[in-house]
Amino acid sequence: MEAGGECFPEQRQVLILFLLLGEALAGWESRRYSVMEETESGSFVANLAKDLGLGVGELAARGARVVSEDNEPGLQLDLQTGELVLSEKLDREEMCGSTDPCVMHFQVLLKNPLGVFRAELLVRDINDHSPEFPEREMTLKILETSPPGTVFALKKAQDLDVGNNNIQNYSISPNSHFRVSTRTRGDGRKYPELVLVKELDREEQAELRVTLTALDGGSPPRSGAAQVRILVLDVNDNAPEFVQKLYQVQVPENSPVGMLVVKVSARDLDTGTNGEISYSYFYSSQEISTTFELNNFSGEVRLIKKLDFETISSYELEIEASDGGGLSGRCSVSIEVVDVNDNFPELTISSLTSPIPENSPETEVALFRVRDRDSGDNGKMTCCIQDDLPFLLKPSEENFYTLVTNGALDRESQAEYNITITVSDLGTPRLKTQHNITVTVSDVNDNAPAFSQTTYTLRVRENNSPALHIGTVSATDRDAGANAQVTYSLLPPRDPHLPLASLVSINADNGQLFALRSLDYEALQAFEVRVGAADRGSPALSSQALVRVLVLDDNDNAPFVLYPLQNGSAPCTELVPRAAEAGYLVTKVVAVDGDSGQNAWLSFQLLKATEPGLFGVWAHNGEVRTARLLSERDAVRHRLLGAGQGQWRAAAVGQRHAARAAGGRLLAALPAAAGRGGGRGPGRPAHRLPGHRLGVRVVALPVLGAGVRGGAAVQEERGGVGGWLRGARGPLSGPPGGRQRRGDPVPELPVRGVSGGRDWDQRVQILEADFPQYCKPRSWEEVRGKSNLPIQLSGIV
């Protein structure tokens, strides 16, 4: 299928010496170089660097080279000196035959920028061939009655040299009857004629011999000789005469072998043997005798070899008709070979650049020459490539084309192009030649590495082993080679206090991330790492991604019982009235767990009791309550041993007159909940209360030291984990269980945090607090000076 594309017509043109294709160099003029044939190889022809106005080093830098029209050897360019020299001996006769002048066309090709210079080398003839006759002896029959002045044709000699070195003169040996005349043909060739100067007498001399000599114009001249045998004949009145002195025919070059080209005809008025005519070549070269066959009896000239217009476009035949009496006549046959479209266009790549950079628009890719050996429309050509390619053909003079990129290329979209150059002639039928070239696009670092995700989330369980592989980031680069080789690195963290260098590392080659040390969820729940990916291009391109590392909690912290205090000494004592109903709240076990999620969900159970059926503990909130009414038979003191995923001990003491007042009420500063219900704080679990409260969190805090301080604001110790509790209605006073009076001074108590201190950094919320039943003070004096005093807190969450 013929490739589509815009085509450019070209025509055969007369060669102009050293035409520049493209922009001419300053100072360049058309020149003709010449050399004598048979000059020794390596001989100097010209200094091209000087003629082109270029420095010697510039020829090598621009890749200068010499290309001949038919890619024939003969010339060589020395890039070091800029000299054009012969690479071999040149034989003018072998190169051009009889064509004069003998010109070898060549081009000088330069790159960066592209330049094409056309030139010609004239090969001058030397006199290295002598004239030669086709036969060493020729026979001529002449009637004895021929009058003086009669002219007789002689066969001419052949000299392969041209110009003045060709035959210039003919001469014969001295005799009394003949002289020779040198004549000139239309093509400038010399031929001899024998002129009778004195009558012949057969009876006196029946045969004569003379020597015919051909002399060229060389210095020194060369010559060749042949013997002419002249037979004097008895009277033969009429010589054969051709119907036409000149036959002109046209023969298509694709004519088949055996075709009749022409038929010559002569007649003789004599009778008998004197009227019998035979035909022969008066003179024929080797080319004529091997191409045409002459029938001696009929005068038919037939083709015995294929014609080629591009090799020989015309033939001149000299045919002689002879009768039986020795008389003859001559005619000329001019055969013109008609060109037919039998030559396919030729395409010669002079320069090809591959690969080419992807970001180089208007880049010269190839320089090539097209030629068609036919003539007329058969030799006119069009040249095109496919339409869907980012390339463009630019025609130049003398059938040269430049293939250039039509804009910047993108190697990532297409790294290789197969280009079909189609050259078609305008003959009938049209002939075409296709030439395929492959152009590779080289990579330019125009793509930064791209991560598969902009953000990665990795999860690693705490207490991991050091050097644990926790995940992999991946980036790809659409470039090639070193431009696509990705190197990973850790970028400086946004938080300057984050010890990133001791937490994670990354494999620079494959993006694998490793935890350098064992992580602790209770110390660090999450952190962010910025990872960079850079290629190895010049300059290098890079991108980055964010990696969030989430530390997963492991159940590595046992619950810690805050109340009752676990000091390894006597159990905590609670007072229970004898009249307590079933479900009476004796005390509340408070415990915390440093873990999170399900690992921090606590459940409580009673392991051991003096009387198992009397008390019970609620599994979810740690409340110890009476299971039934106390009776007189029940012991006054009961010992309980329980566990909240950890053991605790308490002693319940029955007391008939237990104080039933709520005791002093305090306000406490605790971390604020992060929303309506379900907030995190130091106490777990939360439960619902009636009314408009959303939930209550219960916790017991040991009092570090008692003391009344001024001011109503909640204080926070710098660098510590505690805070202050303040009284809601002033100091406790009056009878046990008495209420505080409105407007009394506000006391404050320092307390210790129960959640490692982290929650104290949040916004605080005021909560209410009560002393436990077993140790409700009657006044602040009872509290003052004491430490490790438990306080029961409740608040809205």
Q: Give the helix/strand class.
A: mainly beta
Report the C-alpha radius of gyration, rounded.
Answer: 61 Å
What overall form do the CA principal axes indicate? rod-shaped
- Main sheet overview: 7 strands, antiparallel
| Strand line-up of the largest beta sheet | 52-53-57-56-51-54-55
Mean pLDDT: 76
Which stretches are poorly predicted, pLDDT < 50 over at least 5 residues? 1-6, 8-28, 652-768, 792-797
Intertermini distance: 83 Å
Q: What level of helicity do the residues show? A: under 10%
Strand content: 35-45%
Helix count from the secondary structure assignment: 6
* Overall number of strands: 57
Number of domains: 6
Q: How would you portray this structure in words?
A:
Pfam families: Cadherin (PF00028), Cadherin_2 (PF08266). Its main location: membrane. One of its GO terms (molecular function) is cell adhesion molecule binding. InterPro entries: Cadherin-like_dom (IPR002126), Cadherin-like_sf (IPR015919), Cadherin_CS (IPR020894), Cadherin_N (IPR013164), Protocadherin/Cadherin-CA (IPR050174). It is a single-pass type I membrane protein. The protein has 797 residues and is mainly beta. It has six domains: 20-124, Cadherins (Immunoglobulin-like, Sandwich), CATH 2.60.40.60; 137-233, Cadherins (Immunoglobulin-like, Sandwich), CATH 2.60.40.60; 241-338, Immunoglobulin-like; 450-552, Sandwich (Immunoglobulin-like), CATH 2.60.40.60; 560-655, Cadherins (Immunoglobulin-like, Sandwich); 665-796, no CATH class. Helices cover 4% and strands 41% of the residues. The strands form 16 sheets. It has a seven-stranded antiparallel sheet, with no helix packed on it. Strands 1, 2, 4, 7 and 8 form a five-stranded mixed sheet that branches. A four-stranded mixed sheet has the order 9-15-14-11, with no helix packed on it. The radius of gyration is 61 Å and the shape is rod-shaped.
